[in-house]
Write a structure and sequence with these properties.
Keywords: Oxidoreductase. Belongs to the short-chain dehydrogenases/reductases (SDR) family. GO terms for molecular function: oxidoreductase activity, acting on the CH-OH group of donors, NAD or NADP as acceptor. With 264 residues, the chain is of the alpha/beta class. It contains nine helices and seven strands. The protein has a seven-stranded parallel sheet with strand order 3-2-1-4-5-6-7, with helices on both faces. It is globular, with a radius of gyration of 18 Å. Bound molecules: nicotinamide-adenine-dinucleotide (NAD).
Length: 264
């Protein structure tokens, strides 16, 4: 098993320009790792890489060929790869209405296919390093997401299945794979969900966060760093026997009355 890596020194992060991805990048860089940062937002990922002394590998994470190049570039720059953190994601409107088919396709492409591509392309390198994968799902990966999030909900459930399958398949060969299901996090994506509620109910963004987390036992959304620290734990040797786990980091929402805690 992958107990020999105390803390990975070479880490590839997808969706690294975003609210959570950048917090994950900062956390690993602060822990002394060399970070490879991938995102479709080339300018932002370049700025962050510059700040952290990492490498920027901009790419559309829904394109398997592009992801393959990112993984190969990261592995050759670092002489290997010890951890992959799949963070990329987007909420795209999707319902059963035929006019929203495009939203379904886009939801699955960004939130599920992209996670699969990064993990699959990294496997040969992780077999060599006996490394680890963390995939970011969502509360919508174990509960229903909010209205308009059909594709997102299906994709995030898919991420849980992807992590479990990888854990079973590659655990015997030394790669641990785990999954995180955060609740609301204060990021641009979280703010997007809140803006909808704020506009609908004529309240501020802060009030929208308060309203949507009123039934959550912790009574608040997460700060991105609180989820980044879970990623750091899962890929470290402190989690050497944790494989195929779905770690719920939602302030206790999932133990309340299912999805009403978040999506009322
Ligand atoms: N914010 C929340 O409340 C929340 C809750 C649960 C789960 N999540 C999950 O956390 C992860 C990070 O989200 P966030 O809140 O930081 O959102 P964010 O919008 O700040 O970041 C998402 C990042 O993914 C990138 N991305 C989108 N499409 C891409 C593509 N095709 N190729 C490459 N990169 C692409 C974006 O450019 C962005 O930098 C996502 O998987 C999201 O589903 C977020």
């Amino acid at each position: 098993m992958s107990t020999k890596i105390d803390r990975p020194q070479t880490v590839l992060i997808s969706g690294a320009a975003g609210g959570l991805g950048s917090a994950v990048a900062r956390r690993f860089a602060a822990d002394g790792a060399r970070v490879a940062l991938s995102d479709i937002n080339a300018a932002q990922v370049a700025e962050l890489a510059n700040e952290l002394g990492g490498i920027a590998l901009p790419a559309d994470g829904t394109d398997r060929g592009a992801v393959r190049e990112v993984v190969e570039d990261a592995a050759s720059a670092f002489g290997g790869l010890e951890a992959v953190i799949g963070v990329q994601g987007a909420q795209v409107k999707s319902t059963t209405n035929p006019s929203s088919n495009d939203g379904w396709d886009k939801s699955l492409a960004v939130n599920l296919n992209g996670q699969f591509y990064f993990a699959a392309e990294a496997i040969p390198h992780l077999l060599k390093s006996q490394g680890s994968i963390v995939l970011v799902s969502s509360s919508a990966g174990i509960l229903s997401g909010p209205p308009g999030a059909l594709g997102y909900t299906a994709a995030k459930h898919g991420v849980v299945g992807l992590a479990r399958w990888l854990a079973r398949e590659y655990g015997p060969r030394g790669i641990r794979t785990n999954c995180i299901t955060p609740g609301w996090i204060r990021t641009p994506l979280g703010d997007g969900g809140m803006e909808y509620i704020a506009e609908r109910d004529g309240i501020t963004l802060d009030e929208a966060y308060e309203r949507t987390t009123a039934l959550v036992p912790m009574r608040r959304a997460a700060h991105p760093g609180e989820i980044a620290s879970v990623c750091a734990f899962l890929v470290s040797s402190d989690a050497s026997m944790v494989n195929g786990h779905v770690l719920v980091a939602d302030g206790g929402a999932a133990v309340v009355d299912s999805s009403t805690a978040f999506f009322n």
